[in-house]
Structures are given as structure tokens and as C-alpha cells.
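Hi Y.,

Following your request, here is the sequence exactly as I used it, all 338 residues.
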Amino acid sequence: MSTALCAAAAWVHAQSPDPLFTVRDGGGTARASVHGTGALYVGGAYDNTVFTPVAPVEGAGTRLVWIPEKAAFRVGQVTGTQWDSANLGDYSFAAGLDTRALGAHAVAFGNGSVAAGAASFAAGDTNTASGAASVALGYHAHTNARQGSFVFSDRSSVDEVRAGVNHSASWRVSGGFRIFTSSNLSTGVTIQSGASVSNWGQASAVISTSTGAMLTTGGVWQNASDVNRKHLFAPVDGEAVLARLRSVPIQEWSYRAEPGEVRHLGPTSQDFRAAFGLGQDDKSIGTVDADGVALAGVQALDARTLRQGDEIAALRAENQALRERLAAIERALGAAGQ
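Below is the corresponding structure, written out as C-alpha cells. Let me know if you'd prefer a different format.
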């Protein structure tokens, strides 16, 4: 080692912890150093006024590249121009095979992934995050220049999954989508794959919940009604239900969020709650509660109909007996007059 190099090494040692050697530019500024701890420092100066090519190496190859003028980093392999100067976004990072991060603050990982939007993120196989602050993950996911969008695509098809609008989330998960809200996976929501059985045993469900409710593959929403999930049972007076139901206005109306021509029929939750006191609040009506009121009312009407039927039958029998007595009297009077 030359006297000058030894002196430089000694000077660096006095300035920073345990450097083995330091590389400096012509002005004496440290650009790189290796330390005895294994630490590696590579510095530089970001320069957003640079418009000429800044990549030290361009074209195909396997390499690790740090470009301080862009504060950009590349590692892996490219078969073309993916890491040329034209594809270097400021403060960007790309790693893998043929990845491109040409948006400012963009990150691309995997195989052929492209992060083209500002602050975008693409990872996986052949994904493109072209919208600002968008994310593309999985296989052939594309944010379609939609800012703030998220796209995840599974590997069940080579077709791309593209974002349709800004600030949206799109998923292709042909094997189902599960959200667990407990560490033992006992509660949550599952969006099923076709007619498979969910984590909680519901078959032929598109959406199933740990509470037992589900949307069937035929489009029917089914509420949980297992007796083992219920308690605090109490009898119901059907006639009282009918009396309270008479006080509930039944009207036609439209939701404010829907066009006026979309009409609905039924009570308001406030009127329903005031009449029956069912559900959690007066802002919604549980379908099980509305169904329960209807069924209780039907049973009460059925019981009333049966009672009236018995009364009518008794009246008919009484009327028939009166007719027979009247006929007998008329016959007797007729015989006496002869």
C-alpha cells in the first residue's frame, strides 16, 4: 500500500467508525467506503437538472447500479433497455428481471414489472402500475393509468385485470377471498370460489360469514337462524303484533342515493322501531325482524280465520237446525188446517 493511500485510510479512520478504505472524488469528497463491520457506504449528489444520460452502463446485462444523480437503484438483470437513463425515475428502485421504475418515487420488483406512475408500486410477474400512487400485484395486474388504484391478479388466467376508475381496488382471486378478524381464524368474512364450502361450513355460498349468514350462488341472502345461536326466547301475541302493525305507515319511496324512478315499498325504520322496538337502532330494519313481524301477523290472521271458520260452521249448523224446526212447524200447521 502506498504512503498516500495509508495516510488517506488513517484520515478516514479518524472521521468515521472502522473504515477499511474510502473512495473519493477529485474534490476530496468521500463517494464510497467499506467498513470493518461489513457496512458499505456509496454516496453521491442528487441533481434534478441533469437531462443527459446518467446511467453508468446501459443495455442488457446483470448488474447492481446506484445512480446518485437520480437517487435511483437497480439490481438484477435486464435483457434490453429497461435500466437505461430514459427509464430511470427520480428516487426510484427496481429489482429482478426486466423491471422498470420510470416514475418518480416508483418501485418495481419481480419479473417484467413496470412502475410508471409517480409513487407507484409494481411487484410480481408482468404487472404495470401506471397510475400515480397506484399498486399492481400478482400476475398480469394493470392499474390502467388510474391514480390511487389497487389491482391484485391471481395466476388463474393470462388475461390482464385492469383498474376501471381512479381510487378503486380490483381483485381476481378465483380461489376465494378471506378476511379473518380473530387470531384463531374463527370469525370473519369469506367470498367463496364457486360452490365450495366456506371456513364456517356453508356450502354453495358466494359470501359467507362466521356468524352463519351467507349469499348463495343462486343470489339469495340467507340470515343465520340456528337455534343454538339464540337465547332469551319470549312468546309473541299475534293479535298484539297486528294491532301494532296497523300503526305502521306503509308507503312507496325512493332512496336519496338512487334515481327517482327506482321505487320501493315498505315502512321507515323509525316507524318500525317505534312500533316493535326490534333491532339495534332506528336507522335500519333487519330482514329477520321484518320477516318475523310478517310471519307473526300471518299466524295471527290464520288463527283468526280458523276461529271465524269455526264460528261460521256453528252458525251454519244453528241456521240449519232453525230451518228444520221451521219446516217441522210449517208441516204441523199445514196438517192441522186440513
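The two ends are 160 Å apart (CA to CA).

Thanks again,
Q.
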